[in-house]
């Protein structure tokens, strides 16, 4: 008889049924260590195989690893949602798998197949199912990483790749009303194939810390980046896409290599069209943002959230917020599909349990 798989062992673990004694709503978006993480490796030029669940914790890595020396790494973010009936759903995980593959191709990395990615996510959720918060009180955030872990001194693609998924229960990403500041000095990315803003490269995030740190010290929730070529168009915030509403029309900046093609963004566009709104993807100027009725951001972590104000060149512009906004209507439908209370007519959800 075959030995029990790691997943079976996890599920038999006495701890796996015990509900953690934590106040789910207080977690916010900070790391809560869970029980297991998923690890799968492959040598350069080969295919990933034989992934395993291992106890969550620190792991060994060569000081000469590609990820540590040359930033050869990408990540993903998706959530597992508990329904009222107690089952667990994922939202469009194949989109995360495909985006990871696009990023891996761009950075010359091997990547898991879509099937391997989804199965690994499912195994990680099942092994940590006691950490999926009850319906309406939060979600289990999953963080797949793909990194060059082979050792080499010279600049070049790594000789080994590691795919790892860890997770943490989360509740709200932002606290209170969102007040954004337009960043005029630092740009997040450049457009076209030369840019890496369109993939979730680990190297995209730290370079804008000076801007986000300064904005947060001034009391802002986040910064809004402008295009590097002209500084006239809005792009995105540090981890979410942007939309504006004027009358019945919704528009969002085109993803042209500089902006991450968000899965929430894509889903919100589809939901808005279904609800009868006119939606356009095109370059959006700062000027038109300043005269919009409503501004909102989208992302796995932030869901769909109204932006209460934007400050540009020391002038603060306020926008409509509250339950009657377009953003809140879109948020309600999206969250309903994700948590199983609104019929999933598009086949976006994948049941794990
Ligand atoms: C830079 C950036 N933009 C947008 C998003 C939103 O993407 P998604 O809706 O796929 O979470 C994220 C988060 O993944 C991000 O890091």
Q: List the ligand species.
A: pyridoxal-5'-phosphate
- CATH homology-level superfamily of the largest domain: Aminotransferase class 4, branched-chain amino acid transferase, N-terminal domain
Query: What proportion strand?
Result: 25-35%
Order of helices and strands, N to C? HEEHEEEHHEEEHEEEEHEHEEEHE
- What's the end-to-end separation, in Å? 26 Å
Mean pLDDT: 95
What is the overall silhouette? globular
Number of domains: 2
Number of helices: 8
**Quaternary organisation of the protein chains:** single chain
CATH architecture of the largest domain: 2-Layer Sandwich
Number of strands: 17
The major sheet is characterized as:
9 strands, mixed
Uncertain runs are none
CATH class value of the largest domain: Alpha Beta
- Radius of gyration, whole Å: 21 Å
CATH topology of the largest domain: D-amino Acid Aminotransferase, Chain A, domain 1
Derived structural class: alpha+beta
């Amino acid at each position: 008889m075959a030995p029990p798989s790691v997943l079976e062992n996890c599920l038999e673990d006495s701890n796996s049924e015990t509900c953690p004694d934590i106040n789910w709503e207080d977690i916010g978006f900070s790391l809560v260590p869970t029980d297991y993480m998923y690890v799968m490796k492959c040598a350069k030029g080969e295919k990933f195989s034989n992934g395993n669940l291992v106890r969550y914790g620190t792991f060994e890595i060569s000081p000469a690893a590609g990820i540590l020396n040359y930033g050869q790494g990408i990540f993903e973010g998706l959530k597992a949602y508990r329904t009222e009936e107690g089952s667990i759903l994922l939202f469009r995980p194949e989109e995360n798998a495909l985006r990871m593959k696009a990023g891996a191709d761009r950075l010359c990395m091997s990547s898991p197949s879509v099937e391997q990615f989804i199965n690994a996510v499912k195994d990680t959720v099942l092994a940590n199912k006691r950490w999926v918060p009850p319906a309406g009180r939060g979600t289990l955030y999953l963080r797949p990483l793909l990194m060059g872990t082979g050792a080499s001194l010279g600049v070049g693609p790594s000789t080994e790749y590691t795919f790892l998924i860890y997770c943490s229960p989360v509740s709200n990403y932002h606290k209170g009303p969102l007040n954004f500041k337009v960043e005029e000095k630092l740009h997040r990315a450049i457009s076209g194939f030369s840019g890496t803003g369109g993939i979730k490269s680990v190297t995209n995030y730290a370079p804008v810390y000076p801007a986000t740190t300064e904005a947060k010290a001034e009391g802002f929730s986040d910064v809004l980046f402008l295009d590097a070529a002209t500084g006239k168009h809005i792009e995105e915030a540090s981890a979410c896409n942007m939309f504006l509403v004027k009358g019945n029309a919704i528009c969002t900046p085109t993803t042209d290599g500089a902006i991450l093609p968000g899965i929430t963004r894509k889903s919100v566009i589809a939901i808005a069209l279904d609800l009868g709104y006119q939606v356009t993807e095109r370059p959006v100027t700062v000027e038109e943002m300043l005269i919009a009725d409503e501004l909102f951001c989208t992302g796995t972590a932030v869901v769909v959230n109204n932006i209460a104000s934007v400050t540009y060149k020391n002038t603060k512009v306020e926008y409509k917020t509250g339950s009657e906004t377009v953003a809140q209507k879109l948020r309600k439908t999206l969250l309903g599909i994700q948590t199983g209370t609104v019929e999933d007519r598009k086949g976006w959800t994948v049941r794990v349990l």
